[in-house]
Design a protein that fits this description.
Elements: E1 2-6, E2 9-15, H1 20-31, E3 35-53, E4 58-64, E5 68-80, E6 83-94, E7 101-121, E8 128-131, E9 136-139
Antiparallel strand pairs: 1-2, 2-7, 3-4, 3-5, 3-7, 5-6, 6-7, 8-9
Amino acid sequence: MVIRDVESGFMIKLARGEKVVASLTTFCERRGINGGVFQAVGAVEDAEIGYYNLGKREYFFKTIPEIMEVASMNGNVALVDGKPFLHTHAVLSRTDETLATLGAHIKEATVAVTLEVYLTPFAVPFTRAYDEETGLKLLDL
């Protein structure tokens, strides 16, 4: 991971083989970032992606073993049980002639080439609290 401070946040370059969510979570823990937003572009492989089934109140994930372009990755950082938690979504594009896309919640992914992340921390912490209606820990604003 290579980090450069910029006016309103950080440019972070993740290298091939780094775990995206784990690396960014560790970065937030070490820097004391308890709230923020981020966006990223690059390429990943072995992406564990999924969706939340509201009726069953559980996530369903599958691993996509191929290398995929990250057409768009967005998310936020908030505290869950006192620790930074990343809520991450992405649109991934196949690296073949179809360029077919998948969009989903990202549980984890491995950087295939690079991932360029722009993270904007907030001056105040944000938390997530359990929501009885959905069964999820939602932003507590």
